[in-house]
Amino acid sequence: MASSSTHTSPLPPPINTTLPIKQPTSSSTAVTDLDDPNHPLHHHRRTVNDFEYGHALGEGSYSTVIAAKDKKTDKQYAIKKLDKAHIVKNDKVKYVMIERDALSRMNHLGIVKLYWTFRDNRSLYYVLDLAPNGELYSLIRRKAPFDMETTRFYAAELLLALEHIHDKGVVHRDIKPENILLDDNMHIKITDFGSAKFLEQDNKPVAGGTTGSSRSFVGTAEYVSPELLRSEPTLKEADWWAFGCVVFQMLSGKSPFKAATDYLIFQKIKNLEYEFPDAFPPVAKDLVQRLLVLAPEKRLGGEALGGVDAIKNHAFFQGFDWQQDIFKQTAPELALQYRDDLKWQQHQQEKLDEADDFETWFHAGDDHPDAPPQPNEQPQDDTASSSTRVPASQPVHPSAPVDGLDQLSDTPHHHEDADDVSSSSSTSLPTQTLPTLAPPKEAGTPTLPISSTLALASGQLGMSSHIHNDTDTSLASHQPPW
């Protein structure tokens, strides 16, 4: 094509967060252009002070999830706040990096979306989709056993989300009802990618050979695949094992390998010891039996048996139109009734909280000797330190000082005006100061009760019930590009 006689400046290339991030070649590239108001992506950038912070949604071993509202757009998000000191002290840098990199690859309505990452002197922040209706676990606990319509609906959404995850070269490795959130319309959103692994196109772990990174021992005991217990590579088939466990749990109300201790759970998994309830639907029984197979190469959903299409073609999904957009359809009646009940409980809790606030104000004025202490300060934004800011598409140089986490880029991972962003901002959140990080919880801490508004999104955390006895050291020496 002949060049035009009129000279025009080329448009800047878009930021592609699905590609591997290259290391900068010199320290001069460590200053981001996003601080420049003339940069085309400047208005997409966010910092700590761009949000109004509401109540805590849940707490994990090294993170807290907080409801927040974007001051620029009034949209509501869930902000995951991670304690940098705790991350470094407990050698969790690897999992923080994995979660960010995995989420940056995802763009699906059934998966929690990562919009921005930023930091202050003490914490890292992930801005994520807000899922106001809690976890699938809570729905199962209150309404199970599900009818076939509800089970098929959520099984189909979970299958499509897992298909997208696998297509992006990722194995989740911690699929369970606690990590499946429910948005405002009771559709699922998979969260918590801290245990994820990256694969090559042929369903093999990225590098590492026989000691590849997919052998690390992570996950949650009741949903761990048998190949992981045998110290074999963990590939896509591990997620289909967990998928079978979730289908079983929706139709029975409990996980198939429930036991008093992790050791007993592992013994049941290795020996394939589980029982179906008498009323378990036969077609669903056949699906679960084909998914809960000890040999991954013989498991439904595995590459040897036709991949995900083999699950879609099973009689369990007979009559289901896979061409329709299930995430735009109305959720089943059982789920909608649960949502209405949950909203009523939240409303009652808000009334109690308002009464408590009035009582506190009435009996303790600002000058009263028994007045409560002043709230914690808002996190300090370090936007003034532009000399250490990282470009949106590049990490800091490996020679970065301290622990490497101080260089987390203020990165717009997904623009807020994307077509597939869920609109979960129908209600206004109370504005208050950002709560401080709670002490780490002990392993095995049970899920918070549904009656508490603090339980709404605990699934968005790397909860301490995970098994993170990771024996893999292939990434241990990596300097995090944060």
From TrEMBL:
Q: Which GO terms describe its biological process?
A: intracellular signal transduction
- GO MF, any single term: ATP binding
Q: Which reaction does it catalyse?
A: L-seryl-[protein] + ATP = O-phospho-L-seryl-[protein] + ADP + H(+); L-threonyl-[protein] + ATP = O-phospho-L-threonyl-[protein] + ADP + H(+)
Q: Where does ATP bind?
A: K81
Enzyme Commission number(s)? 2.7.11.1
Query: Where does the record place the Protein kinase domain?
Result: 51-317
Which SUPFAM superfamilies does the UniProt entry name for this protein?
Answer: Protein kinase-like (PK-like)
Print the keywords alphabetically.
ATP-binding, Kinase, Nucleotide-binding, Serine/threonine-protein kinase, Transferase
- Pfam families according to UniProt: Pkinase
Quote the InterPro entries the UniProt record gives.
Kinase-like_dom_sf, PDPK1, Prot_kinase_dom, Protein_kinase_ATP_BS, Ser/Thr_kinase_AS, Ser_Thr_kinase_AGC
Which stretches does UniProt call biased (Polar residues)? 377-391
Superkingdom assignment: Eukaryota
What family is reported? Answer: Belongs to the protein kinase superfamily. AGC Ser/Thr protein kinase family. PDPK1 subfamily.
What protein name applies here?
non-specific serine/threonine protein kinase
